[in-house]
Amino acid sequence: MSTTNTKPAPLPFHYQFLAGAIAGVSEICTMYPLDVVKTRFQLQVGKAGADGYTSISDCFRKIIKNEGFGRLYRGIIPPVLVEAPKRATKFAANEQYSQMYMKLFGMDKMTQPLSILTGVSAGVTEAFLVASFELVKIRLQDKNSAGKYNGTMDCIKKIYQQEGPLAFFNGLEATIWRHAFWNGGYFGCIHYVRGLLPKAETKQGELAVNFTAGAIGGTFGTMLNTPLDVVKTRIQNQSSGAPKKYNWAMPALATVYKEEGFASLYKGFTPKVLRLGPGGGILLVVFDQVTTFIRKHLM
Questions:
Q1: Residues 61-83: pLDDT tens digits?
Q2: pLDDT, tens digit (0-9, with 9 covering 90-100), for 202-246
Q3: Which domains does the chain have, with CATH numbers?
Q4: Which of the four, 40, 126, 169, 215, has the lowest number of CB atoms within 10 Å?
């Protein structure tokens, strides 16, 4: 991805897929424990008593003390398995949608509205891929499920046996909203920030521009989509056998707001933004570096 508004010729899809996969796995291996902390906060209704979490450090401390350090990486297998196609889809779809929309609207360079549109389109595409993996990850991350599932495959098996195959698509609609908001904000903000920053004259300067734009984009996308992430997490953590309190995204938003207040729609925001702010920078830098390497050495 170039630091100018005029984009280079797109890479073949398989190279875009590879670059996105490497970027995604790099980000998740670095930032995953914050995702566990985010999920714990989002599943916490009210203060949750003495066992509740009051801050990020308190959550880390209680998880390590009560459950062991390894619990910070519980549930990482599903996102790692899907991370390669997920991030590859994010960037590859964004590149493909960029070219399609530029041709459709007769434009020769990207604009911010076009960047937002391509981001939203890529996010919707990405959501269909990740929804089932997200559900399994959340079930494993929930502390109340610690004794229920012995690992990823056991979790998948029990969900299938107890809830049926369609259970893996619970929360798909909320996932679509979450990814559309994040990707639209992320790619739209990247385009805007790059236009504000001085043009990079060196490779180090280009890296700094990409990391800054990606980090700001990740932060802005997180600000936009956290309420949808909260309700998606609540929806996907509901198992069968009991009446479901949360079903669709917008009614679920209203329920959380009514019962717990506006601030509850941003539960887990701090660990989420600490992950996806820098994580967005890591994604963009690694993706840009890999695509540069491919253009230089493999094409």
A1: 999 999 898 888 887 887 777 77
A2: 888 888 888 899 889 989 999 999 999 999 999 999 876 667 899
A3: 13-297 (1.50.40.10)
A4: 169
From CA 36, how far away is CA 59, in angstroms rounded?
A: 10
Q: What is the pLDDT of residues 94-152, one digit of tens each?
A: 888 988 999 999 988 888 899 999 999 989 988 998 899 899 989 988 888 777 888 88
Cβ 297 vs Cβ 234: under 8 Å: no
Q: Are 139 and 154 in contact (CB under 8 A)?
A: no
- Reported as half-sphere exposure (CB side, CA atoms, 13 A), residue 126 has a value of 34
CA-CA distance, 124 to 121, in Å (whole number)? 5
Whether the CB-CB separation of 278 and 31 falls below 8 Å is answered with: yes
pTM for the structure as a whole? 0.76
Q: What distance in Å separates the CA atoms of residue 75 and residue 140, rounded to the nearest whole number?
A: 5
